[in-house]
Design a protein that fits this description.
- By secondary structure, the protein is α/β, with parallel strands linked by helices.
- It is about 35% helix and about 20% strand.
- The protein folds into two domains: about 270 residues, Carbamate kinase, CATH 3.40.1160; about 90 residues, Roll (Archaeosine Trna-guanine Transglycosylase, Chain: A, domain 4).
- The strands form three sheets. The chain has an eight-stranded mixed sheet, with helices on both faces. A five-stranded mixed sheet has the order 12-11-13-14-15.
- It is globular and about 65 Å long.
- The structure holds adenosine-5'-diphosphate (ADP) and the ligand N[C@@H](CCC(=O)OP(=O)(O)O)C(=O)O.
- The site of ligand VHF has 17 residues, from helix 3 and strand 4.
């Protein structure tokens, strides 16, 4: 810190700010315009100082349920999606108006898991966000709730924000919530103490985090925030977790909330998405030679090294690669459908190409689409 201010914050030029539903809603659970205006005032002030801001905002469901005549936040997926469809437009309209008063234009960007795991979608998402920032527009991101099915949902915007921070090469991630930092136990209980600095896993070893928040409108509680902080700091991006009412002070670098220091350095972007944002649709069991090839030589996975196929996946889906003992060693995007693979196992690509045609010469998982999991890769970083 210099002069009492956090240099990780004062030196940041591109900042991703995530605000949770609990910080945008009134006591009755609906959206609170006053809280939106207060947040926008702070972000507009930063933007006016030349800082690029990307906002990841929850709140679509909270905005949408009252106009549908519902008294409280719905619990089933279909009604949540209906509420999000109604609420997202209203929410962005409110932001558009509030930022407009400060002379700033905003853009809505809705992301699904596919957008950040499939190569073509991923590049597209990056290009769109980069171009918006070049135009001086402030992107407002949310998950595309209305079309995301249970299996392909992020479900929480904390991890989405960490992955977006990496996607846009942000210098800082700020998570705004209804709690003034990470506590070592339930923040409502006397005796729980705030953890102001987290420099690594050792500072988290005594921390107990709960899944649900006190507001009843947030989704992941502190669990997803700590996970988001791990993803971002492991990829070289420091994180501030603060109460939304302290947003101005947090973004000015004042020592409020919890400061998670960077623990790793930047890694290839898609690898981060693959490791943290995908739910595997199947498992491929490898023989020990293939495990060595994939983990030590960082080679692509070929049919010859696979002994068993499990799951119902299609081309481009994420699958786990497991060793002969069943431990997951890597995750990758598969180039064959589940029903095609069993007939190819144990066979050389040359044989397959001769018998079935050149299309069958392709790798089952290309090394560019593969990330090691649960063990150290060549850079010594953890996936
Ligand atoms: N160890 C902890 N430290 C701080 N907050 C915690 C902890 N464990 C659980 N929580 C709860 O997490 C909540 C924030 O999560 P959530 O309600 O999902 O917020 P948001 O809507 O901002 O995403 C806080 O209100 C707090 O009650
Ligand atoms: N995408 C959902 C919010 C999901 C979410 O992560 O909520 P929160 O825990 O309040 O940040 C919505 O806009 O309602």
């Amino acid at each position: 810190m210099s002069g009492g201010l956090r240099t990780d914050v004062t030196g940041a030029h591109r900042v991703v700010v995530k605000v949770g539903s609990s910080s945008l809603t009134s006591a009755r659970g609906g959206i609170d315009q006053q809280r939106i205006d207060t947040l926008v005032d702070v972000l507009a002030e930063r933007r006016g100082n030349g800082i690029e801001v990307v906002l990841v905002s929850s709140g679509a469901i909270a905005t949408g349920f009252a106009p549908l005549g519902l008294r409280s936040r719905p619990r089933d997926l279909a009604t949540q999606q209906a509420a999000a469809s109604v609420g997202q437009g209203l929410l962005v309209a409110r932001y558009t108006e509030a930022f407009g008063r400060h002379g700033f234009r905003v853009a809505q960007v809705l992301l699904t898991l596919d957008d950040v795991t499939r190569r073509s979608h991923y590049r597209n998402a990056y290009r769109t966000l980069a171009r918006l920032l070049e135009f001086g527009v402030l992107p407002i991101i949310n998950e595309n709730d209305s079309v995301a099915t249970e299996e392909i949902r992020f479900g929480d915007n904390d991890r989405l924000a960490a992955l977006v921070a990496h996607l846009v090469n942000a210098d800082l991630l700020v998570l705004l919530s209804d709690v003034d930092g990470l506590y070592d136990g339930d923040p409502r209980r006397p005796g729980s103490a705030k953890v102001s600095e987290v420099r690594g896993e050792e500072d988290l070893s005594h921390v107990v985090v709960r899944k649900s928040g006190r507001s009843g409108v947030g989704t992941g509680g502190m669990v997803t925030k700590v996970e988001a902080a791990r993803i971002a700091t492991g990829a070289g991006i420091p994180v501030i977790l603060a109460d939304a009412s302290d947003a101005g002070r947090a973004l000015a670098g004042e020592p409020v909330g919890t400061h998670f220091h960077r623990t790793g350095r930047r890694r290839p972007a898609r690898q981060l998405w693959l490791a943290h944002a995908t739910t595997p649709r199947g498992r491929l069991r490898l023989d020990s030679g293939a495990v060595r090839a994939v983990c030590e030589r960082r080679a692509s996975l070929l049919p010859a090294g696979i002994v068993e196929v499990d799951g119902d996946f299609g081309v481009g889906d994420p699958v786990d690669l497991v060793d002969p003992e069943g431990r997951t060693v890597a995750r990758g995007l598969v180039n064959f459908d589940a029903h095609e693979l069993p007939g190819l196992l144990g066979r050389s690509t040359r044989d397959l190409a001769r018998e079935l045609g050149p299309a069958y010469e392709r790798e089952v998982v290309h090394r560019d689409d593969l990330v090691l999991v649960g063990q150290r890769d060549r850079n010594g970083t953890r996936a």
